[in-house]
Amino acid sequence: MPEFRVWAPKPEVVRLDVDGTVHEMTRTDDGWWHATVDTAPDARYGFLLDDADTVLPDPRSPRQPDGVHERSQLWAPAEGSRTDWPGKPIDGAVIYELHIGTFTAAGTFDSAIEKLDYLVDLGVDFVEVMPVNSFAGTHGWGYDGVLWYSVHEPYGGPDGLVRFIDACHARGLGVLIDAVFNHLGPSGNYLPRFGPYLSSASNPWGEGINIADVDSDEVRRYIIGCALRWMRDFHADGLRLDAVHALVDVTAVHILEELATETDYLSRQVGRPLALIAESDLNDPRLITARHRGGYGLTAQWADDIHHAIHTAVSGERQGYYADFGTLAALAQTLRHGFFHAATYSSFRRRRHGRPLDITEPTGIPATRLLAYTCTHDQVGNRALGDRPSQNLTAGQLAVKAALVLGSPYTAMLFMGEEWGATTPFQFFSSHPEPELAQATRDGRKAEFAEHGWDAEDIPDPQDPQTFERSKLNWDEPASGEHARLLELYRSLIALRHNEPDLADPWLDRLVVDYDEDQRWIVLRRNRLAIACNLGTEPVNVPVVGDLVLAWAEPDVGAETTRLPGHSFAILREQSPVRN
Fold first, then answer.
1. Which end of the chain has fewer beta carbons closer than 10 Å to its terminal beta carbon, N or C?
2. 37 with 1: CB under 8 angstroms?
3. Concatenated DSSP letters for 7-67?
4. CATH superfamily of this structure's domain 512-573
5. Does residue 242 carry a catalytic annotation?
6. Would you state the pLDDT for residue 446?
7. Catalytic residue list contains 279
8. Which residue positions in the chain have pLDDT lower than 70?
9. pLDDT recorded at residue 67
């Protein structure tokens, strides 16, 4: 008979409702309530707190078939459905970020499975899915999750996720899941009725989580238990941890260090690598510094400075947090050191920001601990119109950005559709069922961009179903014209990255970067391979020669220089390596 348990130190009485029948529960001194009930393996259940007559879902709900406001359902993965998967490390891999709801027209795990062979052919190593835990409404980005242990039903629920991960593993693809532990969504969050889940500290997205205030130990276990569940029960290969800088923890052992320790232990238990990738705004190397050296011991972190440096140098945009970037000097500095702001002044923040990364072998941090990318869901979706670089740049500019990322020493990440220059936007969309919340979301979005000079009428309504529909990929595009040409380039760059030993060196102190600010060219030297890029519109002569390996447009390789057309790149194998 299943035992039902719930941590609820706040109410005086907790009762269990199973399929409409109410059962008494017994409380222990630690605030946990228990009841053992003979019931069906797929029973619907919930909890009644004190004298309330509304049944609340389980904070650790394994399934929410009717949405986040309704009863939970018992669920366990089917026996014998899993593949024999040894796992793989993420260091130096190519990761593909996607949103299940817009990756395909149907927007489900099963329809995404139909595109996995395409991803294998592209050459990626891991699929990173944006949050799939339960949130209110039918569609959204997923960062408003309120029942972290369950899987969003419109995507296919927990069984759909199991099928998706198994299908990825059967094809040699690892799976990373985006997990949000810094805040809870505004609709369906019943956790405060059970216990002290929320903190007095807040963040831009909502009330913070109690990981360091009074009675926070069980909340910390709630978070860590959820993180481990994705990797243990669903067999995910790791997590992308959203906005960890918003996790306010003043304890001696930071929750990220605690989570990394538990993840390493689980990795040894299951016999395969497990990864934790942080999104952080702090440029703090401690996240990816080993625990025995005083760090938190996470596997990797997103590196927005690399994105900003590449995007601004290629596109010319300089607004907002791009203000300090845009020059080739900034690009070269960032590519050599991982962080641009490293205990240096940030004009956007109006203060000193970041900390230098030790890049020296063997004591430092290899470049593979940082993720480089030309765009992400944030860098596209948080623009006023959700427009992609491909909607504003030439195909040659897109090719240059791809060469800089995929030819770099960093672990690379693509955002779905960038590999063929998708023309569909990725806009901010939501489906809040509460009218007042829906209106607040609309008003907040318009007010945010009005401050930056955008006409409020131009801002897509996040609640309009067409905003969601517009953001779905158009799978007719990859086979046609310039889209097909760009896609073939991405395949070639990824194949070169996998097969070329000179591109495997992860140490930044051996990366050589030369550039000419006026002529707008930059060259990355990876041992004998030189990645020469012309960011300008006019042809330039770049002081690098060798055997041509891969190019966009038609370079003219001479005796002393290579002439590159505007908005193009060439990868050449030089006679001998250039050293720092």
1. N
2. yes
3. E--S-S-EEEEETTEEEE-EE-TTSEEEEE----TT-EEEEEETT--SPBPPTT-S--TT-
4. Golgi alpha-mannosidase II (2.60.40.1180)
5. yes
6. 86
7. yes
8. 80-83, 451-453, 579-580
9. 97
CA distance 561 to 543: 4
With tokens 């801002």, the residue in question is: 459
Q: Give the single-character DSSP code of 524.
A: E
Confidence (pTM): 0.97
CA dist 4 → 21, 65, 217, 292 (Å): 14, 18, 21, 39
Q: Does domain 94-498 have CATH number 1.10.275.10?
A: no
Rounded Cα gap, residues 29 and 63, in angstroms: 28
Look at residue 452 in the predicted model and tell me its pLDDT. 67
**Residue ranges matching CATH 2.60.40.10 in the chain:** 3-56
Residues of the chain with CATH 2.60.40.1180: 512-573
Q: What backbone phi and psi angles, to 5 degrees, belong to 312?
A: -70, -40
Name the active-site residue from 97, 237, 279, 500. Answer: 279
The fold of 3-56 is Immunoglobulin-like (2.60.40)
Looking at residue 402, what is its pLDDT? 98
Question: And the tokens for 64?
Answer: 């929410």
| Predicted pLDDT at 80 | 59
Write the CB contacts of 52 (distance below 8 Å, at least 6 apart in sequence): none
H or E segment and range at residue 531: strand 529-534
- Report CA-CA distances (Å) from 307 to 79, 288, 411, 461, 496: 43, 19, 13, 27, 21
Catalytic residue among 97, 128, 237, 242: 242
